[in-house]
UniProtKB/TrEMBL annotation:
Entries under NCBIfam families matching the protein: PRK14083.1 (NF010683)
Domain of life: Bacteria
Keywords for the protein's UniProt record, in alphabetical order: ATP-binding, Chaperone, Nucleotide-binding
Family of the protein in this entry: Belongs to the heat shock protein 90 family.
Biased composition (Low complexity): 10-19
Location of the region described as Disordered in the Swiss-Prot/TrEMBL record: 1-22
Provenance organism: Catenulispora pinistramenti
Protein's name according to its UniProt entry: HSP90 family protein
SUPFAM superfamilies in alphabetical order: ATPase domain of HSP90 chaperone/DNA topoisomerase II/histidine kinase, Ribosomal protein S5 domain 2-like
InterPro entries for this protein: HATPase_C_sf, Hsp90_fam, Hsp90_N, Ribosomal_Su5_D2-typ_SF
Length: 666
């Protein structure tokens, strides 16, 4: 094999193949299956062929960066030609000499953009590095070490494999390059094939490009023509490269040119007013992320080299939809699906950022989960938190607007995040006996906060509790009970106690014995009517007077009722064994209680009523109304009662005997 026809990676022979004597280990270097490696790094590392455009742009940008380290005034233009038949990327960068082509372009895993530390491979670690495979990594663009050192932080590439991405769409990569450092060196043409071989040719002066720089040309492999159409290449180049630091233009087969870069980024431009700035950032969000943001948080964290914007989603999101963020690294789009960039609690935010702090994985499609990402996550979380705190202090209506949409998600996270809880407490809405309001305002009125176990209980007692001056919060909504229990930690001096309807009963006034005696017949009627429903009747005086009766139903009573229902169902299904088991569990625990309100004019009317049947119908109607008020599910016996009461009252209103009664009598 001639020196001008070498494999991209030379297979490393054993470094000490015959060194191993008896009892002594013999040391060997790993062998490399070149075709397999090229196939792996081109076809299996990336999620889509589209990345070939990114890798070409990236190399062009890095080459210009390198050249400008030594020659700050050097031209900085990337020219892409997509004429359907081929894609060509030309840069005015540092170029390569023949020697550098062999060392960098043609050595898999070696990059001119990285120093010694990052280069030693497996064999290198074993101390048997084959220079052809795992070189020392020194040198670089123009072989000027200091140049490399100075420019390294600015390069996008580092792994020495990116160019192989081109083999996803092409069988051959052709590179013509002329060094800007060694200006006397002739231009070189290199052609690398997907099977792992390359050839190299020194160009005659008349073939040589006039200016230093590099041109990479790809022709589609069979079936990959789609990726070479100009509109597609424009779209990909804009997606990846819109924020690149050097002017990039694309020319199609008809000679039309398209601007690829749109720099400076929207957040770095000058605007006549904050309003126009906000509008420009919002329009960018619509354009890039596809939604009109509810609000915008500008991001500028110099310490981490982060610039960009965090956009608040316009509609409610759930914590499980941890959406992706759009991350540029030194201008190049890394991914629009980055995870873990913000703390979990900030799930209602989508970011677009440009940074040089984060490390991409080798596929350059995701971020390393490392200390830097953790630092960025913390810094961005702090920024969002500070912004929320700032809104709370200066613009509560704006914060309210946000929480009106995202309160459920914020509550979900506030359960575990004390800071977020304290921060948003004055704004998060809860259902209370004083209406829907934040807990801080509620606790100003009630140092003892009663919490119901569920919505049912809250509905039963809210009006009466409010009239009795008790502060009750509905614990029936998702996350609310957990948050209310955290209240004493955020608001010292406030206590939270569980509320049971029995506690409410204790707050109802007893009735004067003489008046209770007068109400005796009605109470007896009520007990008779309600007995079949496992409900007692009692008389108390309370506010508001508009409530004629209150259905108090403790947890035990509800449990007992559910058991009775199941027993009836099992019996109806002919399931005697199950019905028997349930029957054996019958308890004599507390029953539900219908507490008639002696202060209610309606109950007064029923007490004075002489028509016992009408009074019974009235009791049924009052029970039905209390039942509806409690929002409890209605059992079959109860719906029959409601029906009977309604028809009974209607019949009475029109002066007839109720049909059911007439039927029973007839
Ligand atoms: N347009 C170019 N101009 C000058 N040198 C180039 C150009 N393209 C590639 N090279 C050289 O070839 C080497 C290998 O390029 P390749 O794209 O495979 O990897 P990389 O850019 O170094 O790292 P990464 O795998 O992270 O992209 C580069 O380090 C560089 O020295």
């Amino acid at each position: 094999m001639s020196s001008s026809e070498k494999p991209l990676v030379s297979k490393s022979a054993s470094a000490a193949s015959d060194a191993g004597g008896r009892g002594l280990p013999s040391v060997h270097a790993f062998q490399v299956d070149l075709r397999g490696i090229v196939d792996l790094l081109s076809h299996h590392l990336y999620s889509s062929p589209r990345v070939f455009v990114r890798e070409l742009l990236q190399n062009a940008v890095d080459a210009i960066t390198a050249r400008r380290v030594v020659d700050p005034g050097a031209p900085a233009v990337v020219h892409v030609i997509a004429d359907g038949a081929q894609v060509q990327v030309r840069d005015s960068g540092i170029g390569l000499t023949e020697d550098e082509v062999h060392r960098f372009l043609a050595t898999i895993g070696r990059s001119s953009k990285r120093g010694v530390a990052g280069v030693v491979g497996v064999a290198g670690a074993a101390g048997v590095a084959d220079g052809a495979v795992f070189g020392d990594g020194l040198g670089g663009f123009g072989d000027a070490e200091s140049l490399l050192e100075r420019g390294r932080g600015d390069f996008l590439g580092r792994f020495g494999i990116g160019l192989l991405a081109c083999f996803v769409v092409a069988d051959e990569i052709s590179v013509v390059t002329k060094s800007a450092v060694d200006v006397a060196a002739p231009a070189v043409e290199w052609r690398g094939a997907a099977d792992g071989h390359y050839d190299i040719r020194i160009l005659a002066p008349e073939e040589s490009p006039a200016q230093p720089g590099t041109t990479v040309t790809l022709k589609p492999s069979p079936g990959k023509e789609f990726w070479f159409q100009a509109p597609r290449v424009v779209e990909l180049a804009r997606d990846f490269g819109s924020l690149l630091p050097y002017e990039t233009v694309l020319e199609d087969e008809a000679g039309y040119t398209y601007r690829i870069t749109e720099t400076p980024p929207v957040w770095d431009r000058e605007y006549p007013s904050p309003g126009t700035r906000y509008e420009a950032l919002a329009a960018y969000c619509q354009d890039i992320l596809g939604f009109a943001p509810l609000d915008i948080i500008e991001l500028n964290i110099p310490l981490l080299g982060i610039k960009g914007a965090a956009y608040i989603l316009p509609t409610a999101a759930t914590t499980s939809e941890q959406g992706g963020h759009r991350v540029h690294i030194k201008g190049m789009l890394l991914t629009d699906q980055a995870r873990g960039l913000l703390p979990d609690w900030a799930f209602f935010v989508r970011c677009v950022i440009d940074t040089d702090a984060l490390r991409p994985t080798a596929s350059r499609e995701a971020l390393y989960e490392d200390d830097r990402l953790a630092a960025v996550r913390e810094a961005l979380g702090d920024r969002v938190r500070d912004w929320l705190a700032g809104l709370a202090a200066t613009d509560p209506p704006r914060l309210n607007r946000l929480l009106a949409v995202h309160y459920l998600g914020v509550k979900a996270l506030a359960r575990f995040d004390d800071d977020l809880f304290a921060l948003t407490l004055p704004w998060l809405p809860f259902e209370t006996t004083a209406g829907r309001m934040p807990l801080t305002a509620f606790a100003d009125q009630h140092r003892v906060v009663h919490l119901t176990a569920g919505d049912e209980e809250f509905q039963q007692v809210s009006q009466i509790a409010a009239a009795a001056g008790l502060g009750v919060v509905n614990g029936g909504y998702t996350y609310d009970a957990d948050l209310v229990r955290k209240l004493p930690r955020a608001l010292p001096g406030v206590t939270v106690v569980d509320l049971d309807p029995e506690t409410i009963a204790a707050h109802l006034d007893t009735v004067d014995p003489a008046e209770e005696l007068a109400a005796g017949p009605l109470l007896a009627t009520a007990r008779r009517v309600l007995d079949t429903l496992d409900c007692d009747a009692a008389l108390r005086a309370y506010h508001p007077v508009t409530i004629p009766a209150l259905l108090l139903d403790g947890r035990e009573a509800r449990h007992e009722r559910a058991r009775v229902d199941a027993e009836a169902e099992a019996a109806a299904d002919g399931d005697d064994l199950w019905a028997g088991i349930l029957g054996a569990l019958r308890s004599v625990g507390p029953r539900a209680r219908l507490v008639l309100n002696h202060r209610s004019p309606l109950i007064q009317g029923l007490i004075e009523l002489e028509d016992a049947e009408l009074a019974a119908t009235g009791i049924e109607a009052v029970y039905g109304q209390a039942l509806l008020l409690s929002k409890r599910p209605i059992r079959s016996g109860e719906s029959a009662l409601l029906n009977r009461a309604f028809l009974g009252l209607l019949a009475h209103a029109v002066g007839q005997r109720p049909a059911i009664q007439a039927e029973e009598e007839g």
